[in-house]
Amino acid sequence: MQIKVQAFGVLKVRLGEGATSVELPEGATVADLLAQMENSTESMRGIAVSVNAEYARASDVLREGDEVGLLPPVSGGRGPEEPAAGPTAAELDENGVVALAWSAVRGRAPVVSVGLQREPIAAEGLIRQAKDAEDGAVVVFDGIVRNNSRGRRTLYLEYEAYEEMALAKLDGLGHEARERFGVRFVGMVHRLGRLEIGETSVLIVVSSAHRAQAYEASRWLIDTLKTTVPVWKKEIFEDGTVWADGEPFPEGVGIA
Is 3.90.1170.40 the CATH classification of the domain at 91-243? Predict the structure, then answer.
């Protein structure tokens, strides 16, 4: 059977750009695929694997035509949590640049709004969308590009994502945050492509009746996003370029 495999982030340096087709016997597992590609899974330790845009386990059986993603630890963060699943309807703008997912309840305005975009993020629009008469607080997390990392001067950053999967995970996290913390609205937008110093890389807006829940949900969302949503960061310094090291995947996500 033929399996389509694509590497992301730093794994592209070793395994190459673009998707490749791998032939496997019927009944082969994710572990069998990794072993065939590397002859040893040792060099793959710490990564995660997706099958058809969902996190997979080493023991999962593959089927003809499956699309497998090889995912290094994502862009980094603290406070790992179990990933949230949740399919979403993705819409591309006329330029194919912005992908947005909207979730509505009983015909009302969306309660979860997530997106990926290559243009600068305008915080004001998402904040306006977040506000409602029943809210007592709106908490905004605005992650920005700083001019240094690990003692080196940063020139700019480049972000890439497994876009279909990233949107689904963002949407799932938004709904899980509403259930966990009792907040009314969650909005999240992540930039892709080249980002200059001072630009917003990720924006999270949470509204709720009370500030405590909004603060807690915002912190949980950024911490969980940074360990489970497939987005990777390349840092361009004065003296070289590196893919940023990510935090280990949560238990049950990474391939041991």
Answer: yes
